[in-house]
C-alpha cells in the first residue's frame, strides 16, 4: 500500500470500489441487462393493421400509473356497457398509494402483472399496448366493445364528477377513440377513409352513407377534419386534410367552428421496428363540449363549476392551436 494510504487504481483507471453501484441508489433507476430485457419484452406489443381502440395520453413519466387507471376504467365500463367481466385490473395496483415504486424489481413485476391480466388471451376485449413515445398508450379493443361509446361514457361521467372523491384518474389526460387502423401511406389512408367515412357521409365516388339516403341535401351534414401526427413526417398534415376532404361529397360542407361531425385522424410511427399506422374515427359535435375527450380537463371544470356555480364551463383556451384543420 502507498504511504499516503490511498488505494491503487486498477488497470482501467477506476478506483477499487467505484465500479459498483447500489441497486437501491439513484431513486431505484438502476437496471441490469435482465431488467432491460424484461421491459423490452413488455413494450414489444405493437399495433396491427385492422386494430380498433383508443389512444391514451398521460402525464410524463406516469405511464405505468395511467395504465393502472385505464385498465380499471375499462373493467368497470366494459362490464357496465357491454356485460364484460374482463378482470383487467391488477388488484395489487389498486392498493398502492399512487407514488412511483422505488424498487425496479417491484416496478417490473407490477407492469408484468398488469399486462398479463389485461392480455389473458389474444381475443381479450381489452389489450394495453405500450408505445415507444413518452406519455402515450394505446388500448386495443375487440368486440363487443365499441371504443367510441366507451370513451364517451367515461367522459360524460367525468364531466359531472364535481368533487375530488368522484375522481377516477389522476394521471390520464386525453382519450381518443379509433374506429379502425390502417397503414400510414397514401393508399392506406384512402382505404381506411372509405371504410370509416362511408358509415357517416356520402362519398364523392358515389358510395351512399349509412342511412342509404340519395337525396342531394336531405341528409347533408357539416364536418371538420382534425389530424394529429406523432413521430411521423412522411404524410404532411395539409396533404392528409386535402385527401380526406376530396373523398367526401360536396353536399357535406366544411365548418371549422361548429361542425356536426368531426373526423379524427391519428398517424403514428413506432420504432423499432419502424411501422407507420393511421387511425380514424368520426365523432359528434359533443367532442368540443367534452373538451375533446380530455378527462383531466373535464374533472377540473366540474370541480371548478361546483366551487363557483355562477361561472359556466368554457372550452379550454388554446385547445388545438397550431393545427391545420379542415
> Number of helical segments?
9
Strand order of the largest sheet: 2-3-1-4
H-E order:
HEHHHEEHEEHEHEEHH
Number of strands: 8
Largest sheet: 4 strands, antiparallel
Mean pLDDT across all amino acids: 78
Share of residues in helices: 25-40%
User: Could you list the spans in which at least 5 consecutive residues all have pLDDT below 50?
Assistant: 16-28, 88-101, 316-324
Question: How far is it from the N-terminal to the C-terminal residue, by CA?
Answer: 77 Å
Structural class, judged by helices and strands?
A: alpha+beta
The gyration radius over C-alpha positions equals 24 Å
3D shape: globular
Beta-strand content: 15-25%
Keywords: RNA-binding
Protein name: THUMP domain-containing protein
Domain THUMP: 160-284
Biased composition (Acidic residues): 314-326
Topology (elements, then pairings):
Layout: H1 33-42, E1 52-58, H2 63-82, H3 91-94, H4 104-118, E2 126-130, E3 136-141, H5 147-159, E4 172-178, E5 180-183, H6 186-197, E6 223-230, H7 237-246, E7 261-270, E8 275-284, H8 286-289, H9 295-307
Parallel strand pairs: 6-7
Antiparallel strand pairs: 1-3, 1-4, 2-3, 5-8, 7-8
Amino acid at each position: 500500500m502507498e504511504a499516503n494510504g490511498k488505494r491503487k487504481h486498477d488497470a482501467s483507471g477506476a478506483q477499487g470500489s467505484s465500479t459498483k453501484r447500489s441497486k437501491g441508489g439513484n431513486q431505484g433507476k438502476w437496471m441490469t441487462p435482465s431488467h432491460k430485457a424484461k421491459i423490452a419484452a413488455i413494450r414489444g406489443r405493437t399495433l396491427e393493421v385492422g386494430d380498433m381502440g383508443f389512444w391514451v395520453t398521460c402525464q410524463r413519466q406516469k405511464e405505468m400509473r395511467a395504465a393502472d387507471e385505464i385498465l380499471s376504467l375499462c373493467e368497470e365500463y366494459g362490464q357496465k356497457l357491454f356485460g364484460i367481466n374482463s378482470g383487467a385490473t391488477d388488484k395489487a395496483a389498486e392498493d398502492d398509494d399512487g407514488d412511483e415504486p422505488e424498487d425496479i424489481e417491484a416496478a417490473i413485476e407490477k407492469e408484468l402483472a398488469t399486462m398479463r391480466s389485461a392480455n389473458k388471451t389474444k381475443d381479450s376485449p381489452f389489450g394495453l399496448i405500450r408505445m415507444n413515445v413518452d406519455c402515450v398508450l394505446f388500448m386495443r379493443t375487440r368486440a363487443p366493445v365499441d371504443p367510441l361509446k366507451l370513451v364517451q361514457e367515461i367522459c360524460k361521467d367525468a364531466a359531472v364528477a364535481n368533487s375530488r372523491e368522484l375522481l377516477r384518474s389522476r394521471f390520464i389526460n386525453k382519450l381518443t377513440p379509433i374506429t379502425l387502423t390502417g397503414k400510414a401511406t397514401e393508399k392506406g389512408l384512402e382505404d381506411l377513409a372509405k371504410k370509416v367515412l362511408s358509415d357517416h357521409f356520402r362519398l364523392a365516388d358515389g358510395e351512399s352513407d349509412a342511412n342509404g339516403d340519395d337525396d342531394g341535401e336531405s341528409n347533408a351534414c357539416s364536418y371538420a377534419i382534425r389530424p394529429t401526427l406523432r413521430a411521423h413526417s412522411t404524410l404532411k398534415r395539409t396533404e392528409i386534410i386535402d385527401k380526406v376532404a376530396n373523398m367526401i361529397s360536396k353536399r357535406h360542407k366544411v365548418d371549422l367552428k361548429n361542425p356536426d361531425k368531426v373526423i379524427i385522424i391519428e398517424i403514428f410511427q413506432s420504432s423499432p421496428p419502424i411501422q407507420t399506422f393511421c387511425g380514424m374515427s368520426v365523432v359528434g359535435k359533443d367532442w368540443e363540449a367534452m373538451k375533446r375527450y380530455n378527462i383531466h380537463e373535464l374533472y377540473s371544470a366540474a370541480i371548478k363549476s361546483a366551487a363557483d356555480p355562477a361561472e359556466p364551463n368554457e372550452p379550454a383556451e388554446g385547445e388545438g392551436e397550431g393545427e391545420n384543420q379542415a
